[in-house]
Amino acid sequence: MSKFSLEQLEAIVAKRAEASPDESWTAKLVAAGQERAAKKLGEEAVETVIAAISQDRQNLTAESADLLYHLLVVLKIAGIPLQDVLDELQRRTGQSGLQEKASRPK
Ligand SMILES: N=c1c2ncn([C@@H]3O[C@H](COP(=O)(O)OP(=O)(O)OP(=O)(O)O)[C@@H](O)[C@H]3O)c2ncn1[C@@H]1O[C@H](COP(=O)(O)O)[C@@H](O)[C@H]1O
C-alpha cells in the first residue's frame, strides 16, 4: 500500500467539507458546527483510551484513525492548518535538543 499522510487526509477533509451534508460525513459535521464536532472528537478519544487499556491492538488502530480524522475536522472548523500543529511539535523538539540529535549523522 502506498504511503498515506495526514496532509493528504487534511486535503480530503477540506474538499469534502464543501460537499452536501447528505452525502458526506465531513460536510455533515462541519454543518453541525464546532460544538458537535468537538463532542464527536471527545467520544473518539474516549474510545481510543478504552481500546488502549483493553490492549486491543486492532481496535486501538481503528479508533486512532477515527480520532485523527475527527481532530482534522475540528481543526478545519477552527481554521487551524495541520502545519501549525506540526510547527508546534517541531518547536518542542527544538526545545529539548532532540531535533538536532536526530538529524546528526551517526
Ligand atoms: N477517515 C474518515 C472517517 N473516520 C470515521 N468516519 C466517520 O465517522 C462517523 C462516526 O463514527 P461513529 O461510528 O461514531 O458514528 P455514528 O455512530 O454513525 O455517529 P453518531 O450517531 O455517534 O453521531 C462514521 O460515519 C464514520 O464513517 C470517517 N469519515 C470520513 N473519513 C475520511 O473522510 C473522507 C470523506 O468522507 P465523507 O465526508 O463521508 O465523504 C473519507 O474518504 C475518509 O478518507
UniProtKB/TrEMBL annotation:
Keyword set, alphabetical order: Amino-acid biosynthesis, ATP-binding, Cytoplasm, Histidine biosynthesis, Hydrolase, Nucleotide-binding
Catalytic activity reported: 1-(5-phospho-beta-D-ribosyl)-ATP + H2O = 1-(5-phospho-beta-D-ribosyl)-5'-AMP + diphosphate + H(+)
UniProt keyword Nucleotide-binding present: yes
Location(s), subcellular: Cytoplasm
Any one GO molecular-function label of the UniProt entry: phosphoribosyl-ATP diphosphatase activity
Pathway assigned in UniProt: Amino-acid biosynthesis; L-histidine biosynthesis; L-histidine from 5-phospho-alpha-D-ribose 1-diphosphate: step 2/9
CDD domains per UniProt: NTP-PPase_HisIE_like
Enzyme nomenclature, EC number: 3.6.1.31
PANTHER family linked to this entry: HISTIDINE BIOSYNTHESIS BIFUNCTIONAL PROTEIN, HISTIDINE BIOSYNTHESIS BIFUNCTIONAL PROTEIN HISIE
UniProt similarity note: Belongs to the PRA-PH family.
NCBIfam families hit by this protein: histidine_hisI, PRK00400.1-3, PRK00400.1-5
Name of the protein described by the UniProt record: Phosphoribosyl-ATP pyrophosphatase
Encoding gene, per UniProt annotation: hisE
